[in-house]
């Protein structure tokens, strides 16, 4: 391995799998990392540093575009040669073809189609990324001898850039400072409080949405529902939701009305504690939000959209601060209930407007928050040793959501999932209920299923309603198949069986290609053994009034229930 | 503990020379024995030797080796791994092992022939085993365990190196099985799909060319996957293959296959003999089978309840629950037989009320509508041939073959 370029790195040990790179996908000398095969060294076509290691820790990881794809990084044949290392953006990306047409094709070893995850905890913080200069810029800079990059491209600087931090353009920063800053920010973050690891584990499973540095956590100090900075910015940009406006004024809001928005890309390092709300503020915010569900002045969809976004921000901040305690659990419980309830409300709208999007997004977030909640139950020990009050309820919801898990190949099969369930939960009535539903569903026992539906709580009913269509079709099929020719089956009886009104049942039959007629006793009946049974293409989403009746008088009450014991 | 200083040093030196010999003579078997960690006998030697000589560092030793054979850096890391292992520092041991394995893999890729396959397999096995131990250690220290996941990723890479055409392919199945074990342990079984696809869509390679041990293990795991997906016919094929080809002396393995095969067979209507259950210690299924034979739904539910933990842990609980329909079928059959004895002419007409009474006698509360529902489903699923009348609440069984064989459907 010849050292190319001006960075002899003889003192750096070979085979250094440092920094987020385990040297995978990289052949040559096991080195693709920083200091790995030294800088400017050709592992294989990966010349230079900044190449594979950075920004690749685990995200768009090392394999792609990593060496192989002509990632001539820096310091390769001298600084600024091929411009920015394309890999510095943590996207071990596919955009790493060296635009100079110089693709390194020593690829065969790189055939891992499999993403290698770097399993070390990342020390990088993904931050707002400086826009990558186009290749034109790169070549220009190289030709002009690095005009755009007056500073020497030292390893630390490249590293910092690769980590996605904005390279500071203030010329005063020299490399030693940067490395010191980097090191010290690491220490700082350690002081912020390493999160209790189990709490981390609870949030890590679904990926804390902030995608921040998982080994640190931040403690917020913002006392309002929305941090002042954001409030002012949004006022300026007129980016205020209806509910946040004072008297409808799109440019004015107040501390009582504004609620922090969900922001997808946040780097924990860039965040100031005054931008983050501490636990008690999050609690207050959530209560405020949930009370909005019962407003009569706006339709449900707008309220839902607002809540959807704002509760997501609440969840994000809980995760960012790695808060794992009983109040956090309660908050998650309420949010999950909100999503379940919305699922039902939105389904109605879906039929009317044909707009699937909202319901699907809601469903996604429902699954995510439920998973986090289940993890939290495992991570936090309940006081008094008797377990969490509502744990079985939510485990039950998980089962209800996954009744037909055969169809979803991505999920862990229920059979395997059951292994993890605690025995205290297994015996609890709410969970037993869910298991009974599962049993009826899998045995095609439609009567049992609908019987259980009648006994369900409102939220359980919301989830079971997802399967009503299937089960009703099944019932019609079975009845059509086995019923006696000479004794037509009264439609009224079917209706009672499948919890529909008679008129709706008639329509349902028609939708399946089944004819009904008046029989000898003047009842509307279904003739047996009708040949073409067409699966209904129409989705019947009549809200089952039975379930509607189960709901508590207000949405808020349904979600929050009686809460005498929880401290504020 | 005092080691005779010179002695350990020399033994370490001997160890290194044996490794060099093995490498130079391309003796895969010997190499495999030498680098075995959790099952190996050389760990103590290595660890003691390294401990003894603080001055002598691993790098120097590996450079020594490098002069005579490749894989110096691999050995260096590997020796560290062994040292940590003996000192029960599993996380460090795993980290060193991964580095060592990486170095090994690089070289392995360059070798034309597959002489080192056995050694590679040993490495794969060690990766999984030590990763599991490392995870336990991490969990007990309050950290998120991720070593096993890492081992999974790494082994995928190894698989990638083996799965192409050529003499190395024959070792791919072993690595596949290690991967299966990892995924099953982690619960991420959906990751098995890509590996399975790779193995099963090979056109140049015949499955039968893999070593038999690997084939049995492979079929065992893929059979289990089919069970999870309720594909009983496929599961039957695969698990039967595993059973048939399994070494008859390996009773434990046979037992593992049977544990999953029995529920599958039951779903297809085939009952194992009591002798089989006794011989392989699978008595938890005894009551289930008895319930199925007699149509005793109460007994079935009880049996599931009693052995709930066991069945849940092995993941067959949901499969067994589905057997309830079969139980109803059996009950109907019994009623039919009894009626035939009393009044052959009208035996094929079974009043739903009668079924209701039978169930009540078994302490199962049901209303007539639910009985009708079950009858409807039995007919719909072809467990029974006949029809039912909602008006008169009667099930009329077909005069010919009212109970078709269970294996006929699905």
Automatic annotation (TrEMBL), chain A:
Residues 80-195 are annotated as: Disordered. InterPro entries: PCI_dom (IPR000717), SAC3/GANP/THP3 (IPR045107), SAC3/GANP/THP3_conserved (IPR005062). Residues 96-107, 178-193 have a biased composition (Basic and acidic residues). PROSITE patterns: PCI. GO terms for cellular component: cytoplasm; nucleus; transcription export complex 2. Residues 362-540 form the PCI domain. It comes from the Eukaryota. One of its GO terms (biological process) is mRNA export from nucleus. Residues 108-125 have a biased composition (Polar residues). Belongs to the SAC3 family. This is PCI domain-containing protein. The lineage of its organism: Eukaryota, Viridiplantae, Streptophyta, Embryophyta, Bryophyta.
TrEMBL record, chain B:
GO terms for cellular component: transcription export complex 2. Coiled coil: none annotated. GO terms for biological process: poly(A)+ mRNA export from nucleus; post-transcriptional tethering of RNA polymerase II gene DNA at nuclear periphery; transcription elongation by RNA polymerase II. Residues 216-402 form the PCI domain. GO terms for molecular function: double-stranded DNA binding; RNA binding. SMART domains: PAM. It holds the Pfam family PCI. This is PCI domain-containing protein. It comes from Physcomitrium patens. The lineage of its organism: Eukaryota, Viridiplantae, Streptophyta, Embryophyta, Bryophyta.
């Amino acid at each position: 391995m010849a050292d190319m370029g001006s960075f002899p790195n003889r003192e750096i040990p070979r085979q250094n799998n440092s920094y987020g790179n385990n040297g995978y996908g990289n052949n040559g000398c096991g080195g693709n990392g920083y200091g790995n095969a030294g800088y400017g060294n050709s592992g294989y076509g990966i010349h230079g540093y900044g190449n594979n290691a950075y920004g690749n820790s685990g995200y768009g990881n090392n394999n792609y575009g990593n060496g192989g794809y002509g990632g001539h990084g820096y310091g390769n044949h001298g600084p600024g040669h091929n411009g920015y290392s394309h890999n510095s953006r943590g996207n071990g990306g596919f955009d790493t073809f060296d635009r100079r047409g110089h693709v390194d094709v020593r690829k065969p070893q790189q055939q891992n189609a499999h993403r290698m995850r770097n399993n070390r905890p990342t020390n990088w913080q993904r931050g707002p990324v400086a826009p990558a200069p186009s290749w034109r810029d790169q070549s220009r800079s190289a030709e002009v001898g690095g005009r755009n990059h007056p500073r020497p491209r030292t390893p630390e600087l490249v590293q910092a850039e690769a980590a996605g931090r904005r390279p500071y353009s203030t010329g005063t920063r020299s490399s030693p400072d940067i490395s010191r800053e980097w090191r010290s920010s690491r220490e700082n973050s350690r002081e912020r409080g390493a999160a209790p690891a189990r709490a981390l584990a609870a949030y890590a499973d679904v990926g804390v949405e902030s995608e921040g540095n998982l080994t640190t956590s931040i403690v917020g100090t913002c006392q309002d529902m929305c941090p002042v900075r954001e409030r002012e910015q949004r006022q300026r940009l007129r980016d205020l939701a209806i509910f946040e406006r004072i008297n409808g004024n799109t440019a004015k809001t107040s501390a009582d009305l504004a609620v922090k928005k969900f922001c997808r890309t946040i780097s924990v390092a860039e965040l100031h504690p005054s931008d983050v709300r501490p636990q008690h503020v999050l609690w207050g915010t959530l209560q405020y939000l949930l009370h909005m569900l019962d407003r009569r002045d706006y339709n449900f969809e707008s309220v839902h959209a607002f809540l959807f976004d704002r509760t997501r921000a609440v969840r994000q901040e809980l995760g960012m601060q790695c808060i794992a305690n009983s109040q956090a659990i309660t908050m998650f419980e309420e949010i999950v209930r909100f999503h379940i309830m919305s699922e039902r409300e939105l389904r109605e709208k879906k039929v009317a407007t044909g707009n699937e999007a909202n319901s699907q997004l809601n469903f996604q977030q429902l699954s995510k928050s439920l998973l986090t909640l289940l993890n939290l139950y495992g991570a936090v020990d309940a006081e008094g040793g008797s377990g969490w009050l509502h744990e079985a309820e939510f485990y039950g919801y998980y089962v209800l959501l996954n009744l037909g898990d055969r169809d979803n190949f991505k999920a862990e099969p229920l059979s395997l999932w059951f292994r993890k369930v605690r025995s205290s939960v297994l015996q609890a009535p709410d969970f037993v209920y869910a298991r009974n539903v599962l049993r009826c569903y899998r045995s095609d026992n439609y009567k049992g299923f609908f019987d259980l539906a009648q006994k369900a709580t409102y939220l359980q009913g919301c989830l079971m309603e997802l399967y009503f269509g299937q089960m009703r079709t099944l019932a019609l099929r079975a009845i059509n198949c086995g019923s006696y020719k000479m004794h037509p089956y009264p439609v009224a009886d079917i209706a009672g069986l499948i919890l529909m009104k008679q008129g709706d049942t008639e329509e349902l039959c028609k939708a399946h290609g089944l004819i009904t007629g008046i029989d000898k006793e003047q009842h509307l009946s279904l003739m047996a053994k009708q040949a073409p049974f067409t699966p209904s293409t129409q989705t019947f989403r009549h809200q089952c009034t039975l379930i509607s009746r189960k709901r508590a008088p207000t949405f808020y009450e349904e979600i929050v229930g009686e809460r005498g014991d929880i401290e504020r | 503990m005092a080691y005779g200083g010179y002695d350990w040093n020399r033994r370490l030196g001997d160890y290194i020379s044996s490794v060099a010999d093995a490498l130079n003579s391309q003796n895969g078997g010997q190499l495999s024995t030498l680098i075995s960690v959790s099952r190996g006998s050389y760990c103590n030697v290595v660890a003691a030797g390294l401990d003894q000589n603080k001055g002598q560092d691993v790098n120097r030793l590996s450079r020594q080796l490098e002069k005579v054979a490749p894989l110096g850096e691999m050995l260096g890391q590997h020796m560290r791994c062994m040292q940590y292992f003996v000192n029960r520092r599993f996380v460090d041991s795993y980290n060193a092992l991964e580095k060592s394995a990486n170095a090994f893999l690089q070289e392995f890729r360059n070798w034309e022939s597959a002489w080192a396959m056995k050694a590679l397999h040993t490495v794969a096995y060690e990766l999984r085993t030590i990763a599991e131990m490392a995870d336990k250690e991490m969990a007990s220290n309050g950290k998120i365990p991720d070593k096993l996941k890492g081992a999974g990723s790494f082994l995928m890479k190894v698989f990638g190196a083996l799965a192409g055409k050529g003499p190395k392919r024959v070792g791919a199945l072993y690595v596949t099985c290690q991967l299966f074990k990892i995924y099953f342990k982690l619960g991420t079984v959906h990751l098995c799909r890509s590996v399975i696809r790779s193995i099963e869509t090979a056109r140049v390679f015949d499955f039968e060319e893999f070593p038999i041990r690997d084939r049995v293990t492979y079929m065992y795991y893929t059979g289990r996957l089919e069970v999870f997906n309720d594909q009983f016919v496929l599961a039957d094929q695969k698990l039967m293959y595993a059973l048939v080809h399994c070494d008859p002396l390996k009773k434990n393995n046979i037992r593992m296959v049977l544990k999953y095969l029995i529920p599958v067979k039951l779903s297809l209507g085939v009952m194992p003999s009591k002798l089989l259950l006794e011989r392989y210690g699978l008595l938890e299924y005894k009551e289930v089978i008895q319930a199925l034979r007699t149509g005793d739904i109460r007994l079935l539910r009880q049996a599931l309840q009693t052995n709930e933990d066991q069945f849940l842990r092995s993941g067959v609980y949901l499969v067994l629950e589905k057997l309830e329909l079969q139980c109803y079928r059996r009950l109907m059959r019994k009623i039919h037989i009894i009626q035939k004895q009393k009044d052959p002419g009208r035996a094929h007409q079974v009043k739903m009320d009668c079924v209701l009474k039978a169930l009540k006698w078994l302490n199962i509360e049901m209303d007539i509508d639910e009985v009708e529902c079950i009858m409807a489903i039995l007919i719909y699923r072809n467990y029974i041939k006949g029809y039912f009348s909602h008006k008169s609440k009667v099930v009329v069984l077909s005069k010919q073959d009212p109970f078709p064989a269970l294996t006929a459907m699905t």
